[in-house]
Structure formats: structure tokens, C-alpha cells
């Protein structure tokens, strides 16, 4: 386990989507976060106290979380220099970038000298199997998206917590760096060799005999030319009984690809259902979650109402309005699993 509490790193970031790891931690586990660190040229904030690295360490921060992401997951010199300051003060460093901390000699040497640990959250387990497609006991819900960074992790955690509050057995299965830091475990599927993605998800979400739910965090989008392979592997390995489609209202184009339009909700939902049917022909859509942060509240309510009417599904913003309508739809659609009952008996 990564030692807490955390200091959340923003550095020089100017992309609101690029700080989603730090933002997710501040939102879901604020009790584990001492504050945020950002330079003067960073226009972003998590809404928590801004601290220097020295101030954070004095207040008990044990780990600097490099909670930023960029295309390709590279690590710039400024970030390395900030991490070296934290290490010199006796702090561990955690990151989920594709560029691993252990690949930076200066960080490795400094951590060794200071007796602290570098945590590369995106490391995949060894010896993962290929997917089998064999039906597993229990229920699974997978979040899917029209694009990257549209709220699949937020939606997954909100659904899992609401299920538990409603008396259902439910576990969040993290598949990305932010979710792993929040949950304390998981598999970063975009770091898994392609042949083993579906098998990794089968390992992450094994059979369960309590008729409970695994809520599996989605990644990427079937419509994103860069990341559709990861999305496909997740759909096949999850064998989802239920899908929830995630979307950001007002997004002008696919993330990082101004020459690719965001797909329509109906088109995207049908493509995900069609792909999921390979390993679970009975998969159902149970809801739509919209990130309405670009809209005022009246506009947001109208957008959700219109999308829900067009798709015939409950539609909500999980941050603004909660996920109760989707929980009610799940209860309506799914009786206790006969397979799980048989296994329990």
C-alpha cells in the first residue's frame, strides 16, 4: 500500500483533463490529501489548500502523488526536479505515467539514498493469462465512454457507493492509475500487452458467489483511434451484464484529435453493446452518465432529460445529480442471478 497522506501534484499543468488523477483523489478521498502543489504558472486548482512541498511534509504528507497525465505519459524535467525535492525531504513518490519513475536514474538514486520508495502504479502484474470467455458467477457492470476522460471512473465509484448504500454487495474494480490510487488495488489495463487485456480483466473481476456486483472502471472509447483496443479488451474480459455510457456535454472533438468528431450517444451505445455480446449475449444498457461541467444547472438538467428520452434510459450527471435513477433501473432489470444462487448452494 502507498503510504498516506498524499500531496497532490499539479506542477505546471494547464490542461484540466490532464490533472484527472489528482482531481479524482481530491474528490473521492479528500481525507487522505494534505493539499495540492502547483507552480505560479499553473492556472488550475483542486479547490484544496495550496502548499509548498516543504509545508506539506511538515504537515505530515508521506507521498507526493504525480497526479497528472498527458498524451504518451511522458515525464518532463520540471516534474523530475520537483520529485527530487520531495524525496530529499523523506517523501515517497507515486506516479501512474507510462514513463516509469524507476526509468529515471536521478530519481532511483535519490530514493535509494533517502530510504524512500518509488511507486509505479501503472505496472501490470506478471503472468497474466489470455482471456477465456468462460462465464463467471456474479454480476458485472462496466462503464464505457464516447471518448477518453469523460467520467468513467467517477461514474463507476459513484455507482458502487450507491449500490452499497442500497444494500447491494458491490466492489469497485480499478483499471487506471487514479482508480488504483483510490481503491488501493487494481490493474492498469493500458499497461497490459494487448493479447492479455481480456485475461487481465477476468483476473481483476473473478467469479463471486454472493450475487453481488463488480463495478468495472472503463477505459478509452471504441471510437478513439488511439485507445479502442483497450476498450475492446475490457468489454470482452468484463463479460458485462450491464453497461453505463459516459459522455461529456459540449466536448468539441475526441481528446487530442481535433480531426475526429465525438460519436453520437446512440451510435456509441449500440457499438459497445454489440462488442460486449461476444462474451455476454445478454448484456443490457442500464443508464447514461453525463459530465455537465460545461453547462449551467438548468442546461444540464435539460441535456440529461433529452438524452434519456432519446435513448430510453435513465440519464444523470453523477456528480451534480447522483445516480439513483440508474440504481433503480438496475434493480428493475436484474433479479438475483441463478448462476450465483447455484454456486452458493
TrEMBL record:
Regions crossing the membrane: none
Domain D-glutamate N-acetyltransferase-like N-terminal stretches: 53-123
Family matches, as SUPFAM superfamilies: P-loop containing nucleoside triphosphate hydrolases
InterPro entries for the chain: DgcN-like, DgcN-like_C, DgcN-like_N, P-loop_NTPase
Pfam families listed in its UniProt record: DUF1611, DUF1611_N
Residues annotated as domain D-glutamate N-acetyltransferase-like C-terminal: 130-326
PANTHER family hit by this protein: DUF1611 DOMAIN-CONTAINING PROTEIN, GLL3100 PROTEIN
Protein name listed in UniProt: DUF1611 domain-containing protein
